[in-house]
Amino acid sequence: RLTSLHDTLSNRRARGQKSLAVLLDPDNLDEDGCRQLLALSEQHAVEYFFMGGSLVLTSRQAALIRFIKSHSAVPVLLFPSHSLHLDDQADGILLLSLISGRNPDFLIGQHVIAAPLLRQSNLQILPTGYMLVDTGRQTTASYISGTTPLPHDKPGIAACTAMAGEQLGLRLMYLDGGSGALYPVSPAMIRAVRQAVDVPLIVGGGINTIEKAQTALQAGADVIVIGNQIEKDPSFLADMSRTVQHFNQTTDYTNS
Ligand code: 1GP
């Protein structure tokens, strides 16, 4: 099922337009926090909410998605770590295959369990090559998935991994340093993956300053994902949105 969400991402990529995604972790967000974030997102250019986390300790996800869908037009994309985290109220799902790892459960196993449910759902499916990158400390994602992340200083491995993912038919790539990474994915690795594949490239993990966001965008990220820093300081969302918009005004090929 190819999707309008996918078409939008591809069109934006073709025009050199960047997008901002905000990661909402149901374990760290209550309804008040969510209300505040939605108000800010209305004022600033947020293209996507990603919903998920490596561990979902609470049962708040369904209520949060319901709340967002009734208060905001920003699409909600599930960012699941397990087939248990499906929810038909969202707009779409980043159907992650953890191609940086060698754990069959996260390459195909969970997908087999989820497949009949996804088939019955209205979720738009975005097949995504998910690459965890070592960024200074073991992240929850790498521990829970039981996989070794890509070495930070080996852009060539990341490029070949992305190439293989694209050849297998994955339609997006996601380079992730993991939530709260000590430092973000290197610009050299983003550049190498950008040059290796044509599909839209999502980059996240440890982007907690404007400079780090600009570096990722300049290196070739199409979508940047911010989680922790917005939880700590919601006003960061306004700064990030301005950064992405400024980038887009200077690179919109349709304006040149
Ligand atoms: C993690 O890419 C996301 O999966 C976001 O990371 O929380 O560090 O911004 P942060």
UniProtKB/TrEMBL annotation:
Residues the entry annotates as binding sn-glycerol 1-phosphate: Y174, L175, D176, G177, G178, S179, G180, G205, G206, G227, N228
Catalytic activity, as annotated: sn-glycerol 1-phosphate + (2E,6E,10E)-geranylgeranyl diphosphate = sn-3-O-(geranylgeranyl)glycerol 1-phosphate + diphosphate
Presence of keyword Cell division: no
InterPro entries in the cross-refs: GGGP/HepGP_synthase_I, GGGP/HepGP_synthase_sf, GGGP_HepGP_synthase
Lipid biosynthesis in keyword set: yes
Gene Ontology BP term (one): glycerophospholipid biosynthetic process
Cofactors that this protein relies on: Mg(2+)
Keywords: Lipid biosynthesis, Lipid metabolism, Magnesium, Metal-binding, Phospholipid biosynthesis, Phospholipid metabolism, Transferase
Coiled coil: none
E.C. number(s) listed in UniProt: 2.5.1.41
Positions annotated to bind Mg(2+): D25, S54
GO-annotated molecular function: heptaprenylglyceryl phosphate synthase activity; magnesium ion binding; phosphoglycerol geranylgeranyltransferase activity
Protein's job: Prenyltransferase that catalyzes the transfer of the geranylgeranyl moiety of geranylgeranyl diphosphate (GGPP) to the C3 hydroxyl of sn-glycerol-1-phosphate (G1P).
HAMAP family to which the protein is assigned, alphabetical: GGGP_HepGP_synthase
PANTHER family: HEPTAPRENYLGLYCERYL PHOSPHATE SYNTHASE, PTHR40029
Entry's family note: Belongs to the GGGP/HepGP synthase family. Group II subfamily.
Protein's name according to its UniProt entry: Geranylgeranylglyceryl phosphate synthase
